[in-house]
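Hey, resending since the last one bounced:
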Amino acid sequence: MELMSEHRCFGGLQRFYRHDSREIGLSMRFSVYLPPQAQQGRVPGLVYLAGLTCTEETFMIKAGAQRYAAEHGLALIAPDTSPRSARVEGEMESWDFGVGAGFYLDATQAPWSTHYRMESYLMHELLDLVCATQPVKADQLGIFGHSMGGHGALTLALRHPGRFKSLSAFAPIAAASECPWGEKAFAGYLGSDLTDWLAHDASALMRKTQAPYPAGILIDQGLSDTFLDNQLLPDRFEAACRDANQPLTLRRHEGYDHGYYFISSFIADHIAHHAQQLMPSNPAFFHSEEPNYRSA
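The structure tokens again:
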């Protein structure tokens, strides 16, 4: 594992790494923010999964999350969104499939199945690597993400019960088997069997369980998001949560779109949501001098 760069940030350290991945079979990159509390011992970790076209840098540069992670004493972990340089024919032809669009699943269809193994990479390699080499508590992890990454956060949390203690999302692809982005990705990576698609659809997975996160899931969605009606479908997930008796706070925000201006406006609330569930006995971390911009 190679430390590519390190930067002092809000009293902590922002680090960017590269390593040879066993699961992917290629070199992969990821980023870690360690809050100042990590100098005294291990801290809980919060995994962020980014959306289409993003990298391991996008969230760390654009979201403004380090300020709040430092305040609450949380490490931030952000992987890349797909393998790079797999040399799969067609992987660079479209922005919503292939490079930058791994959908956080293991492809089963050739030629994608050789390297496009993002679920196994995250769940069976990267988290173990981070917790082994960084002062991060393996048994106190939360997960969240945006758009494709919101899909990834919801599905991985539901597919791996108990691995994550807290869950939230920004504008997630909430019913991937029913939208064009998901249909394209699932057909290419998984084939034509709808059963395989539903195994990676957040709303379908929620319908098969009962209140997996009793302390609640938080989702924020902008109402001026151009992808809302045809790609994201949060109403499907809301209905599935209702059927599963899963507490859900789905906040709809007038005027906000799909980008990082939206994410940065509400990132403080998401960090606080995870801190409260990951460290419920430590109220000292729950002070914020910054206002949270809430809307119904």
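Residues 150 and 172 are 4 Å apart (CA to CA).

Sorry for the duplicate.
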